[in-house]
Amino acid sequence: MLTVTSVNVNGLRAAAKKGYLEWLSGCAADVVCLQEVRAEEAQLTEEVRRPAGWHASYAPASAKGRAGVAVLTRRAPEAVRVGFGVPEFESSGRYLEVDLPGTTVASLYLPSGEVGTERQDEKERFMETFLPYLVELRAKAAVDGREALVCGDWNIAHQEADLKNWRANRTKSGFLPEERAWLTRVLGEEGGYVDVVRALHPDQDGPYSWWSYRGRAFDNDTGWRIDYQMATPGLAGRCVKAQVERAASHAERWSDHAPVTVVFD
Amino acid sequence: MLTVTSVNVNGLRAAAKKGYLEWLSGCAADVVCLQEVRAEEAQLTEEVRRPAGWHASYAPASAKGRAGVAVLTRRAPEAVRVGFGVPEFESSGRYLEVDLPGTTVASLYLPSGEVGTERQDEKERFMETFLPYLVELRAKAAVDGREALVCGDWNIAHQEADLKNWRANRTKSGFLPEERAWLTRVLGEEGGYVDVVRALHPDQDGPYSWWSYRGRAFDNDTGWRIDYQMATPGLAGRCVKAQVERAASHAERWSDHAPVTVVFD
DNA sequence: CTTTCTACG
DNA sequence: CGTAGAAAG
C-alpha cells in the first residue's frame, strides 16, 4: 500500500497560518508532494520545515518567494534529485523526485502562463523539454524494475470535463489546444502515463482541484482540474482510490488548490 | 473657540480599517490635520474621503502610496493652498494650508531621513527651504491680521525631554544636533512660532506622539514627540488646552502616531 | 483575490 | 513591525 497526496499550497508560510499543519496531522498519506512552497527552508519554522514524523526534501526556486516544490515522506528516501536536467529549469523550483522502495515519486510545478507573454513562452519551453524527460523517466524505471509517479500542478486542464467553463477558456492559457495536445501526448503512446484520478472517475465533470480566489469561484465550484498524479501503467493498475479533497467550506481552505490523494495497493 | 487635532495616520486606508472613523466620530475638533494619507482621493471610500459633516482638502504625493497630507474642516475653508512654493516639494504631498476665518491652518509632513542617505539630504533641503516659508507665512499673517498654525509630523524631537532614549539617539535622524538647532530657529526669533503643547506642559517628559511598531515601544512608552502644533504667538496665547491622545491600549491604536489636540479660546 | 517581495518608514 | 505597490498566479 502506498498513499500519495499532492497539493499546491500557494505559499507554505501562509498555508501554515491557515490550517495546513492541522490538515497534515490528519493526513494518512505515506508521501506528500507540495508545490508553490514559495520559501527557502531557512524561512520556515522547524515545525513547518520538517513536521514531526516526516522526512522533507526541498527544491526551492532561485527567485525569492517564487515556485518551489517539496516532497514529504514518512521514511527517508533512497535518493533525492532536483530538476530534470534542463539548465533553464534546474533552479526554478519546479521539479523534485525522490526514490522510495520500488517507486520514484516526483513533485512537479509546471509554469503558469498568459497568452502572448514571455511567461507563456517559458511554459511552452518547459513542456517541450519536460516531455522527453518523462519518456526517459519511464524508460529508466522500466529498466530498473521500478514504477514512477509524477504528481503536481500541471497548469493545464486536459479535456472539457476538466474545467467548468471550457468554452470561454479555449483561448486562455491552461486550456489552449496546444497545451491539451501536449497532455494527450503525455498520456498517449509517447509518454505512456496514466492520469489516475481520471482513470478511476472516467465519466464525471472534474473533480476540480483549483478554484480562483476571485469572485465566488469556490462556492460555485467554478474550478479547473489541473493537478494530476500521472503514473506508469504498472503503478496505475494498482490504484484503488483516487480523489480530490475539496474543503467543505471556504473557512477551512488554506490554499486555492485542493489536495489530490491516491491510494495504490 | 477653535479646536485643532493633528495626526499622522500612517495610511488612511489601513487606519480606516482599524478604527480611524470611530475615533473621528468621537472627535470634537473643528479642524483635523492628517499626514501620511498614502492614497489619492479616488482610492478612498466616500465615507473616508469626505466623512459626513466634514469638508476635506487633500494634497497627495505624485508618488503612489507615499506621504500625502489632508485637512478636514467642519466649515468650508475660505481658501486652500498646496505646497509652499519650492518646486522640489510642490507635489510631494507634504504641505497643505487652508484659510479659516482669522486663521490659517496647515498640515505638514516633514520628510523622514536616515543618516548618510539621500533621504536625509532631502530632509535637510526641505528644512532649509521651509523655514523661510514659515517666516513668510507669519509675516503675511501679521499683515492680514491673521494667525497661523502649522500642525503635523515634523520628524524631529526638539529637546531631551522629547524622546525616551535621547542619549542613544544623538546620532540618529530625528534627533541630530542640526535638526534640533533648526527647530530652535523655528521657535526662536527667526521663526517666532510657539510649540503649544510644550508651552502648556513645560516640565514633563513627552508627551510622546509616536511609538515604533517594533518591539514593545508603545507598551513601554518608548516614544518620540515629533508631532507638533506650531502657532503664531497671538494664537498660542489663546491656547487653553493641549494634549496628546495616547490610546489606552494597543488594541485601539490605528496608527503608530497619536493625535495631538489643541484648544484655542 | 491572494502571496510574496520591495521600498519606505 | 507595518503600509502600500508590484509581480505573479
Automatic annotation (TrEMBL), chains A, B:
One of its GO terms (molecular function) is double-stranded DNA 3'-5' DNA exonuclease activity. Mg(2+) binds at residues 8, 36, 153, 155, 256-257. The record marks 155 as: Transition state stabilizer. This is Exodeoxyribonuclease III. The keyword Metal-binding applies. The active site is at 109, 153 (proton donor/acceptor), 257 (proton acceptor). GO terms for biological process: DNA repair. Belongs to the DNA repair enzymes AP/ExoA family. InterPro entries: AP_endonuc_1, Endo/exonu/phosph_ase_sf, Endo/exonuclease/phosphatase, ExoIII-like. NCBIfam families: exoDNase_III, xth. Pfam families: Exo_endo_phos (PF03372). The keyword Heme does not apply. PROSITE patterns: AP_NUCLEASE_F1_4. It is an enzyme of class 3 (hydrolase). Keywords: Hydrolase, Magnesium, Manganese, Metal-binding. Its cofactor is Mg(2+); Mn(2+). The record marks 257 as: Interaction with DNA substrate. Residues 6-257 form the Endonuclease/exonuclease/phosphatase domain. Its EC number is 3.1.11.2. It comes from Streptomyces sedi. The record marks 227 as: Important for catalytic activity.
